[in-house]
């Protein structure tokens, strides 16, 4: 989720949520080897359920316009992320 | 001269017609108890190319699948298990029983290889990973090109693992039979038999879930089937793996998953309500409220492997 100034591109606010599984060995330590993993800490998105997320933030007092974008990425590897869905909206704050 | 040319053309056409038919009619024979020691013979014996002549469309789909890359796509993980996991952490000898903890899913036909050949393949995986880590592209490419000839072939699913979902009921598959998902009688240059397991989620679950080796060791490459049964099915989902990953047009033996954007879009929904307002009494600071709802429409947890 990113909120930025549409004219300069300056980012006013950025936040993210991540969903994944943490593999744990028999002593509860995070591991990567399939042979080491005996338990999981499930932080993924479960099937047939929806998950709500809330982002509430303020902007600099003189902000007149902001572009807010929400992008859902699927990351096959750390640096190999594909945007799957996106919603962008431009908000205006007229001078009071 | 013209007559000779015409006759030559006729013979050429005739031979052209006869040879492919002969190739099609050639009986497919697979080793029963014999173990193969030669790499090329091993590759050729179980190669999906043997099925290509009669099943070109399916072959083309499979070629694009990750089943066709089952070794080269997992070099790092498997090399790590063979170089560190078995010999150093477990302090066990690197034999076929231990190798099967990867290969039972990634290369099921390994059961027909000698211990020496299995070790040769393990050596290639370790060599490929070492070459990749050291940035030696030539060495890596050499190992990679050999490994890319090894994969989950037609024979693996349509014979070797076909009864895994229910071995008690069906017993062992006959090595000379190609098992199909249709009860219809099929004319083929090989024996065929109907295996109802092929259409079930249980068939996929053997590998696409927590793998349990013959000695009881659990290998957790992925946990798809667990979330399928205890998440999706438990909450009223009723589709099999095949109904999403195989039956829709354009999917088939390609079995697209998370590498396919259409599949990701089908499985993941996003609804975002974005609203601007002014916050704080008398200060009226510009503020934003974003309410996001993520929907997992897949038959398993996301992400998973």
Describe the structure.
The complex is a heterodimer of chains A (96) and B (305). Helices cover 0% and strands 54% of the residues of chain A. Chain A has 96 residues and is an all-beta fold. In chain A, strands 2-1-6-7 form a four-stranded antiparallel beta sheet, with no helix packed on it. In chain A, strands 3-4 form a two-stranded antiparallel sheet. Chain A is elongated and about 60 Å long. The model of chain A has no long low-confidence stretch (mean pLDDT 96). The model of chain B is unreliable at 7-25 (pLDDT under 50). Chain B contains 14 helices and six strands. The longest helix of chain B is centred in the N-terminal third of the chain and has 24 residues, at 2-25. With 305 residues, chain B is α+β, with helices and mostly antiparallel strands.
**Biggest interface: chains and residue counts?**
A-B, 51 and 59 residues
Structural class of chain A: mainly beta
Report helical residue fraction of chain B: 40-55%
N/C terminus separation of chain A: 27 Å
**Element string of chain B (H = helix, E = strand):** HHHHHHHHHHEEHEEHHHEE
Helix content of chain A: under 10%
The portion of residues forming beta strands of chain B comes to 5-15%
Strand order of the largest sheet of chain A: 2-1-6-7
Number of helices of chain A: 0
The total count of strands of chain B amounts to 6
Tell me how many strands of chain A there are.
Answer: 7
Characterize the largest beta sheet of chain B: strand count, sense, and whether it forms a barrel.
2 strands, parallel
Query: What characterizes the major β-sheet of chain A?
Result: 4 strands, antiparallel
Average the pLDDT over all residues of chain B and give the rounded result.
92
The portion of residues forming beta strands of chain A comes to over 45%
